[in-house]
Amino acid sequence: MKNKPPYAIDSVDHALLLAQTLQQEGRLRVTDAAERLGVSNSTAHRLLAMLVYRDFAERTADRRYVPGRMLRPTQRSEAPLALLRHVTLPHLRALTDRLGESTNLVVLVGTEVRFVSTIECTRPLRVGDRVGQALPAHLASGGKVLLAAAPPGELDALYDGAVEVDLPRLRRELTLVRKRGFAVNDQLTETGVTAIGAGVRDVAGRTVAAISLAMPTVRFDRDRLAGWVTELSTTAALIERDFAARHEG
Questions:
Q1: DSSP-assigned letter for residue 215
Q2: For a disulfide at 33, which of 13, 44, 128, 240, Cβ 3.0-4.6 Å?
Q3: How far apart (Å, rounded) are the C-alpha atoms in residues 209 and 248?
Q4: Could you give all domains of the chain from N- to C-terminal order, each with its CATH number?
């Protein structure tokens, strides 16, 4: 499993996380960066200034920061990431506290899922922080949920010419995901890690994100799967409720 190293340098980690966030979301204020990292505004300002100095970021006239020339162009999710993160985090924390496993929020970007938020559990053996990372959508639990909800024809467009994807088999799997309402990734993307995913819908009923419960495979028990899925579905419904309330407000 890939976890944060015990000798991690916080300032380096913070700068890299800001660079990843700029690449994915495109624009940040100093206050946004400070809140994301859990640091003071002055610390966030210094980190962003260093990114500007090294051409990983640029400062605009309205005092926001955008990706610099050193960050390669990348596709972005159409989901409202900042709002999703704000609404989702308290529910992911509660879910992790109840189940004792790490939880994630992911969105679909092309043929990948991007990790928007992670809440790590406190067990010594755990799945670590995945924020900013990307996985093949057709293998990841959250990715399968999001692909299963995609409009007809979009799957063909996404995987046209992709020789590494068995499209007929993927269609059959996604049909089952739609029927069940969840998906499982049992070591398809990382040896020793198993995850269960469920979708999160917006006010129009579109599945715009997914949440996942990720655990070391040694703790995955199929007899507990129904209970885990119920917990995920309940959490997704709470997120959808709060998401809708923010839109109405």
A1: E
A2: 44
A3: 19
A4: 10-67 (1.10.10.10), 81-248 (3.30.450.40)
What letter represents residue 138's amino acid?
H
DSSP state, residue 166: -
**Tokens 């990983």 found at:** 56
Determine how β-strand 134-136 pairs with β-strand 65-67. unpaired
Q: Is a pLDDT exceeding 90 seen at residue 24?
A: no
The two structure tokens encoding residue 40: 């003071």
Distance from C-alpha of 204 to C-alpha of 104, rounded to nearest angstrom: 23
Angle between helical axes of 167-180 and 141-148 (0-180°, round to 10): 90
In 53-192, beta strands by DSSP E = 57-59, 65-67, 102-109, 112-119, 134-136, 183-186
pLDDT tens-digit profile of 53-87? Answer: 888 899 999 999 999 887 866 566 556 778 888 89
Whether the CB-CB separation of 142 and 235 falls below 8 Å is answered with no
Q: Whole-prediction pTM value?
A: 0.77
3-state secondary structure of 211: strand
- Which single residue is written with the structure tokens 């999703």? 84
